[in-house]
Amino acid sequence: MNAYPSDDEEDENAVVRPPVNDVVQVLDARGDLILAVGQERKEFLVCSRTLRRASSVFDELYSRRVVDPDGHERLDLSHIGVLPLHLVLEIIHGNHAKVNEHLTNKETLHDVLVVTHHFKMTGCLAPIAVKWLKKVYDKEPSGFHNIAVQLWITHQLGHLGCLKQTIYSMVQGGRLNSRGELIGQGATDNDEYRRFPTLSLLGVLEQVKECRSRVVAQLVNTVRDAVRNLTESPRMPAALQTNGPAPKPTVCQVRGESPTRRRQCDSRMLGAFQRALFDQNWDKVDKPASSPYSLHRRINEVSRQTLKEYDPPSDLHKSCGPFGKKGLEPLVDIVKREVDAIPFDERDFMERGKMMGFPVGA
């Protein structure tokens, strides 16, 4: 049996309520409850049944209402921000058009989702979720604060694709402060992603931090392996090797060139590469604390300087490089591979995203 009366039942048993004053903002002309919101105690006349249907938390809070001397039932919500709750109230009362002017504000959507998470009613945003996310979503967000805000939004709305894309940017620009905590572009040493209460709720910060560390390790290993491979280039053609295992192939893979020419290419490349590493202060860089973006950019600069100083043994070797035929792997590919390995609950995202109106598998 329905615990709440229908609108028709309510009309038949209508209670004559005292009129509200001009200070109260009326969201439902037949409302029966006044909410006093925020420190400024902004007042809204709402339908208690609508709120209780939308949120189990509101349903529990309803028992704390009081009746003032004027005969109005009131509920104190002074711990909730006025604007985000106002927008949520407009949405659950069906006044979607009144929210349109706020659809370009990412911070507002973040705060609205904090409120809906608190009241366990994020599903009420389904009528406007797709439209709102399209207007505020950045495919390549920059800035420490902006990324943190977007991470919460995409997670709460259940859009796994947008969430991963946001983490790509978070990992690429992520660095460590003096305490070893993850921070991003524009952050000071006193900042850290953990200072965002909403991100602590998600439980993904440690996974993102570990993901970033793996990317940094791969970049450092790329340089180390290049030096080792160029250094270990075989000293004589395989045909002249009589004892021991066959030599490793040269880094240079120019077709039609003799093994001697290839070894010469590797030797000259090694010299130019080591000089470039020295000029770029590679050994002095605090690699574990650096962002993958800055490390990858520095390695690219080392590669460019190497090729500029490299003296090829013949014109056939002008296309050679310190990282072999394939060259330096793009950072976006490394980051994507590592982020995609994070074990998200894809079924949960699919269900929540579908409820919000996003395409299945988005």
Short précis:
With 362 residues, the protein is of the alpha/beta class. The chain contains 14 helices and seven strands. Strands 1-3-2-5-4 form a five-stranded mixed beta sheet.
Mind sketching the topology for me?
Elements: H1 7-12, E1 25-26, E2 33-37, E3 42-46, H2 48-54, H3 56-61, E4 66-67, E5 73-77, H4 82-92, H5 106-118, H6 129-136, H7 144-157, H8 160-172, E6 175-176, E7 182-183, H9 197-202, H10 205-231, H11 259-279, H12 292-309, H13 331-339, H14 346-356
Parallel strand pairs: 1-3, 2-5
Antiparallel strand pairs: 2-3, 4-5, 6-7
Helix pairs in contact: 4-5, 5-7, 7-8, 8-10, 8-13, 10-12, 10-13, 11-12
Features:
362 residues, alpha/beta, five-stranded mixed sheet, two-stranded antiparallel sheet
Give a description of the structure:
- This protein has 362 residues and is of the alpha/beta class.
- The chain has helices spanning 7-12, 48-54, 56-61, 82-92, 106-118, 129-136, 144-157, 160-172, 197-202, 205-231, 259-279, 292-309, 331-339, 346-356, and strands at 25-26, 33-37, 42-46, 66-67, 73-77, 175-176, 182-183.
- The strands form 2 sheets. The chain has a 5-stranded mixed β-sheet with strand order 1-3-2-5-4.
- The longest helix has 27 residues, at 205-231.
- It is elongated and about 100 Å long.
- The model has no long low-confidence stretch (mean pLDDT 89).
Q: Compute the number of helices.
A: 14
Radius of gyration computed on alpha carbons: 30 Å
Give the overall shape, derived from the CA principal axes: elongated
Low-confidence spans: pLDDT under 50, at least 5 residues? none
| Count of β-strands | 7
Order of helices and strands: HEEEHHEEHHHHHEEHHHHHH
Strand order of the largest sheet: 1-3-2-5-4
Write down the overall mean pLDDT. Answer: 89
Strand content: 5-15%
Class derived from helix and strand content: alpha/beta
Report the major sheet: 5 strands, mixed
Instruction: Classify the helix fraction into a percent range.
Output: 40-55%
Distance between the termini: 37 Å
